[in-house]
Task: structure prediction
Amino acid sequence: MTLERAHEAGLAAIAGHDVAALPGALRRVEETSLRAMAAVLPSTGVAARHAWLVDRWRAALEGEPDIEPDGGAPGPEFEDAYATLGFPPAMARFHRAALARLSGLLADEVDVRQLLFGDADVLTALAAYQDNVFTGYLNAASADLVRQAADATPYPLRVLELGGGAGLCTAAALAALRGARYEYLFTDVSRLFTVAAARRFAEHPGVDHALLDIDTDFAAQGREAGSADVVLAGNVLHNATHVGRALERIRWLLAPGGSLVFTESTRENHAILTSMQFLLSPEPGRARLGSDDRRGPAGAVFVDEAGWCAELTGAGFTPPRTLPDPESPLAVAGQQLFWSRRVE
Result:
């Protein structure tokens, strides 16, 4: 398995996009988000469960001392930037609506789920959030690594996908596996997604689906030790309450020498801080994600690259190899692919 080939597959998947324009477009969206944060922060009407998010806003603004508050509606360049980043128009509309209602969101007077989903299908709305140049590249690169593993395995490759969600990573992997021998298990913690996946991928041979919670012992959920050759996880592992323990469960699931291929954000995105991350505020009585692992002291949602390296090696994996190259415009969003093997 080579990252070079995976990288080329990722580039091929986004061939119609101007990669060089990504940093400027992302900066426009993030500056708009920072100005909106600065305009709202004097507000005292913050629901207790969103207090952590306000702390993250303050930390973001401390790193951007030249940002001036501006609570006004962004201009049409906002939609242009989202289009350059490869998002469908629905994502720009959602973020614009969230920016206009930040005070209400913080006070829990507005439900971000209503802004995101509205009357639309949940899967369609989530796919809009996940469909962009960065994830297009990473999903294709991840899928190519899975195909390389299939080509190198003398028996049907056993793939287990964690947190399959709306199925974008799944679709890329199954397309790459066309003509190969494989057994593919799509899993998610929600029956909504497993049922949808069963319908969407019904015509693909060798695909099954099951409920699986990354925060719970896998054996207790019917999984067997060493039953997967590849574990695939697209932007899901940060949802673990404790990433180290989740990685230990994944290692248990993998066969000797098996691969973990996953994608993750490794830095906070200011646009997400003013939109999607409201979904991560815990309900009363529930712990916040990462409150018990290395993220806890800082209140961060995402683990940086050095943190993932430490967590992986500590859980019994090889030091990860990553994409994209840090100097690539594709690296500007902090979204990365990690490939690591189980150590014996």
Observations:
- The first strand starts at residue 157 and ends at 162.
